[in-house]
Amino acid sequence: MTQTCIFQQAKSCFIFSTFCFQAILLSLVPKQRETILIFTFCSLSLCQLPGTGDVAVSSSSLAEEIRLRTRMRGSLSWAPPRFQIIFTVQPTNRRSEVVALQHFLCAGCGTEVEPREYFCDCCHGGSEAVIPGRLLSCWDFGRYPVSDFSKRLLDSVWHQPLFDLTCVGKTLYSRVKELDKFRELQEQLMGINKLLSACRLSGRVMAEFDQLPAHLMEQPHLFSMEDLWRVKKGPLVVQARAVLHSAIDHVENCELCLARGFICEFCRERDVIFPFQADICRRCPVCRTCFHKHCFVQKKCPKCARIQSRKKHPDGFHDDTTHFKSSSVQN
Protein backbone atom coordinates (compact mmCIF):
# COMPACT_ATOMS: atom_id res chain seq x y z
CA MET A 1 0.00 0.00 0.00
CA THR A 2 1.41 3.38 -0.98
CA GLN A 3 2.05 6.20 1.44
CA THR A 4 -0.75 8.20 -0.22
CA CYS A 5 -3.32 5.48 0.47
CA ILE A 6 -2.17 5.15 4.06
CA PHE A 7 -2.48 8.90 4.50
CA GLN A 8 -6.00 9.02 3.02
CA GLN A 9 -7.24 6.13 5.19
CA ALA A 10 -5.78 7.64 8.34
CA LYS A 11 -7.29 10.99 7.46
CA SER A 12 -10.75 9.46 6.94
CA CYS A 13 -10.56 7.68 10.30
CA PHE A 14 -9.57 10.90 12.02
CA ILE A 15 -12.45 12.83 10.43
CA PHE A 16 -14.93 10.16 11.55
CA SER A 17 -13.65 10.29 15.13
CA THR A 18 -13.77 14.09 15.01
CA PHE A 19 -17.45 13.93 14.01
CA CYS A 20 -18.26 11.66 16.95
CA PHE A 21 -16.41 13.85 19.44
CA GLN A 22 -17.93 17.10 18.19
CA ALA A 23 -21.42 15.60 18.08
CA ILE A 24 -21.17 15.25 21.84
CA LEU A 25 -19.65 18.65 22.59
CA LEU A 26 -21.43 20.89 20.11
CA SER A 27 -25.06 21.79 19.61
CA LEU A 28 -26.93 24.04 17.35
CA VAL A 29 -28.71 27.17 16.36
CA PRO A 30 -32.55 27.29 16.33
CA LYS A 31 -34.66 25.02 14.13
CA GLN A 32 -36.64 27.85 12.63
CA ARG A 33 -34.41 29.80 10.30
CA GLU A 34 -35.71 33.14 11.49
CA THR A 35 -34.34 32.39 14.92
CA ILE A 36 -30.83 31.71 13.74
CA LEU A 37 -29.60 34.84 15.46
CA ILE A 38 -26.89 33.47 17.62
CA PHE A 39 -24.19 32.16 15.34
CA THR A 40 -22.62 32.39 11.98
CA PHE A 41 -20.98 29.26 10.71
CA CYS A 42 -17.56 28.74 9.33
CA SER A 43 -17.53 28.28 5.57
CA LEU A 44 -18.11 24.68 4.60
CA SER A 45 -14.49 23.95 3.97
CA LEU A 46 -11.68 22.29 5.82
CA CYS A 47 -10.67 24.41 8.83
CA GLN A 48 -7.21 23.79 10.19
CA LEU A 49 -6.51 24.48 13.82
CA PRO A 50 -4.54 27.65 14.60
CA GLY A 51 -0.83 27.24 14.14
CA THR A 52 -0.92 24.46 11.53
CA GLY A 53 -1.35 26.42 8.32
CA ASP A 54 2.32 27.05 7.62
CA VAL A 55 3.77 23.82 9.01
CA ALA A 56 6.57 22.44 6.88
CA VAL A 57 6.42 18.64 6.91
CA SER A 58 9.23 16.37 5.88
CA SER A 59 8.20 13.72 3.35
CA SER A 60 10.36 11.22 5.20
CA SER A 61 8.07 11.25 8.23
CA LEU A 62 4.63 9.97 7.23
CA ALA A 63 3.41 9.68 10.82
CA GLU A 64 4.33 13.30 11.54
CA GLU A 65 2.62 14.45 8.34
CA ILE A 66 -0.59 12.63 9.29
CA ARG A 67 -0.49 14.05 12.82
CA LEU A 68 -0.02 17.66 11.70
CA ARG A 69 -2.11 17.84 8.56
CA THR A 70 -5.19 16.15 10.01
CA ARG A 71 -5.58 18.57 12.91
CA MET A 72 -8.80 20.24 11.80
CA ARG A 73 -12.20 21.47 12.87
CA GLY A 74 -14.97 19.87 10.85
CA SER A 75 -14.54 18.37 7.41
CA LEU A 76 -14.55 19.29 3.75
CA SER A 77 -18.33 19.83 3.84
CA TRP A 78 -19.06 20.92 7.41
CA ALA A 79 -17.65 23.15 10.12
CA PRO A 80 -18.92 23.59 13.70
CA PRO A 81 -20.76 26.72 14.89
CA ARG A 82 -18.86 29.55 16.52
CA PHE A 83 -19.83 31.65 19.52
CA GLN A 84 -21.35 34.87 18.21
CA ILE A 85 -24.29 37.04 19.22
CA ILE A 86 -26.17 38.78 16.40
CA PHE A 87 -28.05 41.95 17.30
CA THR A 88 -30.57 42.10 14.46
CA VAL A 89 -33.34 39.86 13.15
CA GLN A 90 -32.06 37.85 10.21
CA PRO A 91 -34.05 37.38 6.98
CA THR A 92 -35.96 34.13 6.53
CA ASN A 93 -34.69 31.88 3.73
CA ARG A 94 -36.36 28.89 2.12
CA ARG A 95 -35.78 25.77 4.16
CA SER A 96 -34.84 23.66 1.14
CA GLU A 97 -32.16 26.13 0.10
CA VAL A 98 -30.66 26.30 3.56
CA VAL A 99 -30.59 22.54 3.99
CA ALA A 100 -28.95 22.18 0.58
CA LEU A 101 -26.28 24.68 1.57
CA GLN A 102 -25.65 22.53 4.64
CA HIS A 103 -25.12 19.53 2.32
CA PHE A 104 -27.98 17.83 4.20
CA LEU A 105 -25.77 17.63 7.27
CA CYS A 106 -26.64 18.58 10.82
CA ALA A 107 -25.43 22.15 11.30
CA GLY A 108 -24.06 21.33 14.73
CA CYS A 109 -22.33 17.96 14.48
CA GLY A 110 -22.13 17.21 10.76
CA THR A 111 -24.13 13.98 10.73
CA GLU A 112 -26.67 13.35 7.97
CA VAL A 113 -30.21 14.59 8.60
CA GLU A 114 -33.57 14.36 6.90
CA PRO A 115 -33.98 16.64 3.86
CA ARG A 116 -36.32 18.98 5.76
CA GLU A 117 -34.31 19.18 8.97
CA TYR A 118 -31.59 21.62 9.97
CA PHE A 119 -30.31 19.56 12.89
CA CYS A 120 -30.27 16.09 14.30
CA ASP A 121 -32.28 15.18 17.39
CA CYS A 122 -29.15 15.01 19.53
CA CYS A 123 -28.26 18.64 18.83
CA HIS A 124 -31.72 20.19 19.21
CA GLY A 125 -33.75 19.19 22.22
CA GLY A 126 -36.53 21.74 21.75
CA SER A 127 -35.21 24.30 24.25
CA GLU A 128 -36.55 27.85 24.10
CA ALA A 129 -34.94 31.20 24.90
CA VAL A 130 -35.25 34.95 24.43
CA ILE A 131 -33.46 35.99 21.22
CA PRO A 132 -31.21 39.09 21.60
CA GLY A 133 -31.90 40.31 18.06
CA ARG A 134 -35.66 40.28 18.58
CA LEU A 135 -35.35 41.94 21.97
CA LEU A 136 -33.21 44.79 20.64
CA SER A 137 -35.08 45.26 17.38
CA CYS A 138 -38.70 44.68 18.41
CA TRP A 139 -38.69 44.69 22.24
CA ASP A 140 -39.83 41.10 21.84
CA PHE A 141 -39.27 38.93 24.93
CA GLY A 142 -40.98 35.89 23.45
CA ARG A 143 -39.23 32.55 23.79
CA TYR A 144 -38.27 30.83 20.54
CA PRO A 145 -36.89 27.35 19.81
CA VAL A 146 -33.10 27.26 20.04
CA SER A 147 -30.50 24.54 19.98
CA ASP A 148 -28.81 23.23 23.08
CA PHE A 149 -25.64 25.06 22.05
CA SER A 150 -27.56 28.33 21.68
CA LYS A 151 -29.37 27.75 24.94
CA ARG A 152 -26.13 27.36 26.86
CA LEU A 153 -24.68 30.48 25.28
CA LEU A 154 -27.76 32.60 26.00
CA ASP A 155 -27.95 31.36 29.58
CA SER A 156 -24.28 32.26 30.09
CA VAL A 157 -24.76 35.87 28.91
CA TRP A 158 -28.18 36.48 30.50
CA HIS A 159 -26.69 38.39 33.46
CA GLN A 160 -23.78 40.00 31.61
CA PRO A 161 -23.98 43.73 30.68
CA LEU A 162 -23.19 43.39 26.97
CA PHE A 163 -25.73 45.66 25.31
CA ASP A 164 -24.94 49.37 24.97
CA LEU A 165 -28.16 50.97 23.75
CA THR A 166 -26.25 53.82 22.14
CA CYS A 167 -24.72 51.25 19.77
CA VAL A 168 -27.41 48.56 19.45
CA GLY A 169 -31.15 48.99 19.85
CA LYS A 170 -30.77 52.73 19.34
CA THR A 171 -34.50 53.33 18.85
CA LEU A 172 -35.64 51.58 22.02
CA TYR A 173 -35.60 54.70 24.21
CA SER A 174 -37.95 56.52 21.85
CA ARG A 175 -40.25 53.52 21.38
CA VAL A 176 -40.38 52.00 24.87
CA LYS A 177 -41.84 54.31 27.52
CA GLU A 178 -40.74 52.27 30.54
CA LEU A 179 -37.16 52.09 29.28
CA ASP A 180 -37.02 55.85 28.74
CA LYS A 181 -38.37 56.34 32.26
CA PHE A 182 -35.66 54.12 33.67
CA ARG A 183 -33.05 56.13 31.75
CA GLU A 184 -34.19 59.28 33.55
CA LEU A 185 -34.07 57.53 36.92
CA GLN A 186 -30.63 56.16 36.13
CA GLU A 187 -29.26 59.61 35.30
CA GLN A 188 -30.60 60.99 38.59
CA LEU A 189 -29.25 58.06 40.57
CA MET A 190 -25.79 58.41 39.05
CA GLY A 191 -25.77 62.13 39.86
CA ILE A 192 -26.94 61.77 43.44
CA ASN A 193 -24.58 58.83 43.96
CA LYS A 194 -21.62 61.18 43.35
CA LEU A 195 -22.99 63.59 45.94
CA LEU A 196 -23.58 60.88 48.54
CA SER A 197 -20.14 59.36 48.04
CA ALA A 198 -18.65 62.61 49.40
CA CYS A 199 -20.86 62.56 52.50
CA ARG A 200 -19.54 60.73 55.55
CA LEU A 201 -23.08 60.36 56.93
CA SER A 202 -24.55 58.57 53.92
CA GLY A 203 -23.56 55.01 54.82
CA ARG A 204 -27.10 53.74 55.30
CA VAL A 205 -28.52 55.16 52.09
CA MET A 206 -25.43 54.18 50.09
CA ALA A 207 -26.03 50.58 51.15
CA GLU A 208 -29.38 50.73 49.36
CA PHE A 209 -27.58 51.32 46.07
CA ASP A 210 -26.19 47.80 46.40
CA GLN A 211 -29.67 46.52 45.57
CA LEU A 212 -29.15 47.70 41.99
CA PRO A 213 -26.71 46.06 39.54
CA ALA A 214 -23.34 47.81 39.90
CA HIS A 215 -22.90 48.40 36.17
CA LEU A 216 -26.10 50.46 36.03
CA MET A 217 -24.54 52.95 38.45
CA GLU A 218 -21.19 53.04 36.66
CA GLN A 219 -22.05 53.40 32.98
CA PRO A 220 -25.30 54.65 31.44
CA HIS A 221 -27.06 52.79 28.63
CA LEU A 222 -25.27 49.49 29.37
CA PHE A 223 -27.67 46.64 30.08
CA SER A 224 -27.81 42.90 30.39
CA MET A 225 -30.70 40.90 28.98
CA GLU A 226 -31.90 40.38 32.54
CA ASP A 227 -31.90 44.17 33.14
CA LEU A 228 -34.04 44.77 30.07
CA TRP A 229 -36.41 41.99 31.08
CA ARG A 230 -36.77 43.53 34.57
CA VAL A 231 -37.45 46.93 33.00
CA LYS A 232 -40.24 45.44 30.92
CA LYS A 233 -41.76 43.56 33.85
CA GLY A 234 -41.47 46.60 36.15
CA PRO A 235 -39.42 45.59 39.23
CA LEU A 236 -36.23 47.39 38.18
CA VAL A 237 -38.03 50.72 37.69
CA VAL A 238 -39.81 50.35 41.04
CA GLN A 239 -36.56 49.48 42.80
CA ALA A 240 -34.67 52.38 41.22
CA ARG A 241 -37.42 54.84 42.17
CA ALA A 242 -37.40 53.63 45.80
CA VAL A 243 -33.61 54.06 46.07
CA LEU A 244 -33.84 57.54 44.53
CA HIS A 245 -36.54 58.67 46.97
CA SER A 246 -34.48 57.42 49.90
CA ALA A 247 -31.38 59.23 48.61
CA ILE A 248 -33.28 62.51 48.08
CA ASP A 249 -34.70 62.29 51.58
CA HIS A 250 -31.17 62.01 52.97
CA VAL A 251 -29.88 64.96 50.92
CA GLU A 252 -32.75 67.22 51.98
CA ASN A 253 -32.08 66.53 55.65
CA CYS A 254 -28.28 66.39 55.66
CA GLU A 255 -26.34 69.60 56.35
CA LEU A 256 -23.22 68.22 54.70
CA CYS A 257 -25.07 67.46 51.47
CA LEU A 258 -26.97 70.76 51.50
CA ALA A 259 -23.66 72.60 51.80
CA ARG A 260 -22.64 71.10 48.47
CA GLY A 261 -25.70 72.35 46.63
CA PHE A 262 -26.30 75.52 44.62
CA ILE A 263 -28.42 78.65 45.02
CA CYS A 264 -29.69 80.17 41.80
CA GLU A 265 -27.81 83.43 41.19
CA PHE A 266 -30.49 84.73 38.85
CA CYS A 267 -33.44 84.76 41.24
CA ARG A 268 -31.48 84.48 44.53
CA GLU A 269 -34.16 82.31 46.08
CA ARG A 270 -33.00 80.41 49.13
CA ASP A 271 -33.93 76.91 48.00
CA VAL A 272 -30.89 74.70 47.38
CA ILE A 273 -30.74 72.94 44.04
CA PHE A 274 -28.60 70.05 42.81
CA PRO A 275 -27.44 68.80 39.40
CA PHE A 276 -29.42 65.56 39.70
CA GLN A 277 -32.69 67.55 39.77
CA ALA A 278 -32.93 67.56 36.00
CA ASP A 279 -36.59 68.60 36.04
CA ILE A 280 -35.90 71.98 37.74
CA CYS A 281 -32.14 72.47 37.37
CA ARG A 282 -30.06 73.70 34.44
CA ARG A 283 -26.25 73.69 34.45
CA CYS A 284 -24.12 76.26 32.70
CA PRO A 285 -22.25 74.34 29.99
CA VAL A 286 -19.07 76.36 30.68
CA CYS A 287 -18.65 76.63 34.46
CA ARG A 288 -21.13 73.85 35.40
CA THR A 289 -22.91 76.01 37.98
CA CYS A 290 -26.57 75.15 38.60
CA PHE A 291 -29.52 77.50 38.14
CA HIS A 292 -33.27 77.15 37.99
CA LYS A 293 -34.22 75.96 34.54
CA HIS A 294 -36.73 78.78 34.09
CA CYS A 295 -34.22 81.39 35.32
CA PHE A 296 -31.17 80.46 33.30
CA VAL A 297 -30.25 82.73 30.38
CA GLN A 298 -27.69 81.44 27.92
CA LYS A 299 -24.45 83.48 27.72
CA LYS A 300 -25.42 85.54 30.79
CA CYS A 301 -24.12 83.25 33.51
CA PRO A 302 -23.10 85.37 36.56
CA LYS A 303 -20.27 83.05 37.51
CA CYS A 304 -18.82 83.05 34.00
CA ALA A 305 -18.98 86.87 34.07
CA ARG A 306 -16.99 86.96 37.32
CA ILE A 307 -14.41 84.57 35.92
CA GLN A 308 -13.94 86.74 32.84
CA SER A 309 -13.62 89.88 35.00
CA ARG A 310 -10.92 88.25 37.10
CA LYS A 311 -8.99 87.36 33.98
CA LYS A 312 -9.18 90.94 32.70
CA HIS A 313 -8.35 92.54 36.07
CA PRO A 314 -6.32 89.97 38.02
CA ASP A 315 -5.10 92.52 40.61
CA GLY A 316 -7.82 95.11 41.00
CA PHE A 317 -10.97 93.04 40.53
CA HIS A 318 -13.43 93.30 43.40
CA ASP A 319 -16.23 90.77 43.57
CA ASP A 320 -19.28 92.63 44.84
CA THR A 321 -21.03 89.33 45.32
CA THR A 322 -18.65 87.93 47.92
CA HIS A 323 -21.47 88.05 50.43
CA PHE A 324 -23.28 85.51 48.28
CA LYS A 325 -22.08 81.96 48.83
CA SER A 326 -22.73 79.08 46.55
CA SER A 327 -20.92 75.81 46.81
CA SER A 328 -20.82 73.28 44.04
CA VAL A 329 -20.38 69.57 43.63
CA GLN A 330 -17.14 68.61 41.94
CA ASN A 331 -17.59 67.32 38.40
Automatic annotation (TrEMBL):
Transmembrane segments: 12-30
Biological process, per Gene Ontology: autophagosome maturation; autophagosome-endosome fusion; autophagosome-lysosome fusion
Lineage, broadest ranks: Eukaryota, Metazoa, Chordata, Craniata, Vertebrata
Domain Rubicon Homology: 117-311
One term of GO molecular function: phosphatidylinositol phosphate binding
Ranges of Basic and acidic residues composition bias in the record: 314-323
Cross-referenced InterPro entries: Autophagy_HostDef_Reg, RH_dom
Keywords carried by this UniProt record: Membrane, Transmembrane, Transmembrane helix
Region of interest (Disordered), ranges: 311-331
GO CC terms, sorted: autophagosome membrane
Species the sequence originates in: Cyclopterus lumpus (Lumpsucker)
Name listed for the protein in its UniProt record: Rubicon like autophagy enhancer
